[in-house]
Design brief:
Radius of gyration: 24 Å
Structural class: alpha/beta
Distance between the termini: 38 Å
Helix content: 40-55%
Order of helices and strands: HHHEEEHHEHEHHEEEHEHEHHEHHEHHEE
Strand order of the largest sheet: 4-5-8-3-9
Length: about 425
């Protein structure tokens, strides 16, 4: 769980929306709020390596049914005022343009052509949309969109169909890669230069398995995961604090709106960066984790670690910007405070462990080529000492081999016949 030390030092908006909660619910609200707020920082960027990156996060809350993870949707209130403003601006523009058309000409074809060009602009988009619609929404607003769903299978169900399988869009948008869509049916061509998409989901581990359907997918490594395996007791649904919580979120939604308008109105973008000492610590910290993975874990988790580094940088960016809420009118560059840098590192320690657990637990990867080679090197029935000998010849650590035995049993690749003895099932 996330340390209370973190909560005591959060920027005001995050401290305000989390202070009425406790335990897992508090962690859920913080994690999902970071995801929502990551979509609400126009004109803020940083350099990660040689790439320009923006604050957008993909956050996922995983837990069994009746675990209280539904509290995640409270964080959506933070974006409601911004979403409403953007939608109304879009509708007003559409109405004004169509009104002018009435007085200028009666050409129906011209009106239809103009209607195609005019777009409904949304800040929050549903998951049950087509790939083309997602392209359109991302292209219609420069500072990005938010997709938030309380059931992860709403998204995974859409990825089953050709017309709505936007898994590749999710993977590319995480790194703001240029993307385009051309449709022969209506001559439509959409080009998105720097896609900015934030994703906030909750669901069960089984729902995530449906979403991440192959080891080559790459989407799992882009997710900031918070997971647990507990259910909650029946709560007093009539408690007064339940009403107070909504009031707090609604108040902060107004503050977020004003802050959003201020950032959007700035003539130039604001660059975020770490101090030299923070950069040095950052590199050493993740290099150490890199070596730990090579020694103790599956090498396949390295790509997750690399993206967790980027996620850490983005969290630090979000914390720093909201910390400077009252001073943003004068800023053209933002440097992280040590306070926000330490908070980001502490949060990543939690998310790292949760990501690693789910990486091991989710039964979607089948067997890697290395695992297949290792398994093929063993007899139909084998002992632990035999796999340790094979592993020694292949320079595989004992701890890694024991972990493989555990994972193979979970994946029903092998079964344990008695202590230290195994039998292949495939």
């Amino acid at each position: 769980m996330i340390s209370e030390k973190v909560y005591k030092k959060l920027p005001n908006v995050l401290k305000s929306v989390t202070e009425k909660f406790s335990g897992r619910e508090k962690d859920i609200v913080l994690t999902s709020s970071l995801g929502v707020l990551s979509s609400l920082l126009p004109n803020v960027y940083g350099y990660y390596g040689s790439d320009v990156v923006y604050p957008n996060l993909y956050t996922v809350i995983l837990a069994p049914p009746a675990s209280g993870k539904g509290v995640m949707m409270k964080s959506k209130i933070l974006v409601d005022e911004v979403h409403s403003m953007i939608y109304k601006e879009s509708q007003n523009l559409w109405n004004a343009t169509m009104e002018n058309d009435k007085s200028e000409d009666d050409d129906k074809k011209a009106k239809k052509d103009k209607e195609k060009v005019l777009k409904t602009v949304l800040k929050v988009v549903p998951a049950n949309i087509s790939s083309a619609e997602l392209y359109n929404y991302m292209n219609s607003i420069e500072d990005g969109i938010l997709m938030i769903e309380s059931e992860a299978d709403t998204l995974s169900n859409m990825l089953k169909y050709d017309w709505s399988n936007y898994s590749d869009i999710l993977r590319k948008a995480f790194h703001h890669e240029r993307m385009s869509l051309s449709r022969k049916s209506d001559g439509q061509y959409i080009f998105v230069d720097e896609p900015k998409l934030s994703l906030v989901l909750s669901g069960t581990p089984e729902q995530l398995k449906s979403l991440i359907n192959s080891k080559e997918n790459g989407l799992l490594s882009r997710l900031l995961i918070y997971s647990f395996n507990e259910t909650t007791a029946f709560k007093d649904v009539f408690e007064k604090k339940n009403k107070d919580i909504n009031v707090i979120f609604e108040k902060e939604s107004q503050n977020v709106l004003e802050f959003y308008k201020l950032l959007r109105s700035k003539d130039s973008k604001i660059e975020f960066e770490l101090t030299e000492r923070q950069k040095d610590f950052f590199v050493k910290h993740f290099a150490k984790k890199h070596n730990q993975i090579l020694t103790n874990e599956s090498i396949s988790f390295i790509s997750n670690l690399h993206r967790l580094g980027l996620i850490c940088f983005r969290i630090c960016m979000i914390l720093t910007v909201y910390r400077e809420y009252d001073n943003m009118k004068t800023h053209s560059k933002l440097v992280s405070s040590n306070k926000d840098f330490i908070i980001a590192i502490r949060l990543l320690e939690v998310y790292y462990q949760h990501s690693l657990f789910n990486f091991k637990d989710i039964d979607v990867y089948g067997l890697s080529e290395n695992d297949e080679f290792l398994l093929d090197s063993l007899d139909e029935e084998f002992t632990r000492s035999q796999i340790l000998q094979v592993g020694k010849n292949l320079n595989i650590a004992v701890r890694t081999l024991d972990d493989k035995l555990k994972q193979w049993r979970l994946k029903r690749v092998i079964k344990k016949t008695k202590n230290g003895h195994y039998k292949k099932l495939i």
